[in-house]
Write a structure and sequence with these properties.
Blueprint: E1 3-5, E2 8-11, E3 17-20, E4 28-31, H1 34-54, E5 63-65
Antiparallel strand pairs: 1-5, 2-3, 3-4
Length: 101
């Protein structure tokens, strides 16, 4: 079964990313990158949903069954984490050919 899961994302003072599912006790994780935090949270939520389904626990409002895949999403792109090293442009000099005698 597929679910749509609302998450909160924040960067802590120590630079660690935290992602959490509102209303899901224990549904959070911290990681050095946002990608790792989201990947870890995906695994945590999947395990918790399996457990909750087996024990007939209700879903929090932040988790909803999904009949279809989402058609749009908002993603965070942090360019400061992917710095491109730029070189100063090379100065072009022209060399004049020697005079033909």
């Amino acid at each position: 079964m597929r679910f749509l899961v609302d998450v909160r994302i924040s960067k802590q003072e120590d630079g660690i990313w935290r992602v959490e599912v509102p209303g899901l006790q224990g549904g959070w994780t911290d990681a050095p990158t946002i990608e790792e935090a989201l990947r870890d949270l995906h695994e945590i939520v999947a395990l918790m949903l399996d457990f909750d389904e087996a024990h007939d626990h209700p879903l929090p409002e932040s988790i909803r069954p999904a009949d279809t895949l989402p058609q749009a999403a908002t993603i965070l792109v942090d360019t400061s984490e992917h710095v491109i090293k730029r070189r100063a442009p090379r100065k072009r000099t022209s060399v004049r050919p020697a005079a033909v005698r």
